[in-house]
Fold this protein.
Amino acid sequence: MRILGIETSCDETGVAIYDDQEGLLAHQLYSQVKLHADYGGVVPELASRDHSRKIIPLIRETLKQANCSKDDLDGIAYTAGPGLVGALLVGASVARSLAYAWDKPAVAVHHMEGHLLAPMLEDEVPEFPFIALLVSGGHTQLVRVDGIGQYEVMGESIDDAAGEAFDKTAKLLGLDYPGGPRLSKLAEQGDSSRFTFPRPMTNKPGLDFSFSGLKTFAANTIAAEGDDEQTHADIARAFEDAVVDTLAIKCKRALKETGLKRLVIAGGVSANRHLREQLEVLMKSRGGEVFYPRHEFCADNGAMIAYAGLQRLKANQTVGLEISATPRWPMDTLPSV
Ligand code: KG4
Ligand code: ZN
């Protein structure tokens, strides 16, 4: 079975073709980062318009790269949510209309399920059950995963997502959007012993997160300590250490609570080197294993949507003819396959 996957939930247009025998055949990504950089964040209306411009050429290019035609496809999957409604509707309209015109089934994919399953695109895949730490610009979640669609959200952020906290703190440090990777780079020159930021909500039991206070802590530190380059690097380092530590503490707690030995990390922030290293150490000490997608599939992409879509297509979980998006969509309402 072969599927075309389309991602347009935020500021990347992603298209891919996945085949359950041959694996990933082609993937194309267009990032709108430059378009939004002047505004310091994603402007939803501009995002929708740019998806509209890029999506058809990208689909053509992906089909060409995979050396296949519409007749080789068994279905079309698209991100139906969560995300920006206008951006989602571009992908939904194009995917649903193409599926109608080509007489193929259409599959509505949950964006976070896409992230969660992205490690399945690699050679070594995690077996179920496992704990997934999903860390993106919009979500921070710890999920117990017993199978595809068998998701128990054990904890999540009560305010800013981890990626959002990175981006907001980066902005305070004068770094351009998207600041997460830039802050992390700056942190490499930072002295980890100069400042210690709090590890929010780690003194209380439970698996929820709260990252918005760290941004305030960073703002206060900048105000108190000055604006020189080294201070910025030291603050970046203290901030990154605090986020990574907090995530690791909660992962450890979730593993302990469930007795599970496998951990998946996915979403944009899973590209963070320190986070990967710290979780590798944690899993080694617990005799377990950690899995993550290759770098380019940590952030938004079409490949993860094609993969997740194919699993749903095989289970006949297709959608009707209406074009719809679900900007808010709790992951634990998904059916199992
Ligand atoms: O998954 P993603 O591409 O989009 C959403 O679904 O939100 O995640 C984007 C987020 C941004 O907040 C970005 O700053 C963050 O991931 N990010 C990073 C790194 N690379 C991307 N944060 C920290 N360190 C990184 N290396
Ligand atoms: Zn994402």
Remarks:
- The two ends are 16 Å apart (CA to CA).
- Strands lie at 2-7, 12-19, 23-31, 75-81, 106-110, 130-135, 140-147, 150-156, 262-266, 289-291.
- The longest strand covers residues 23-31.
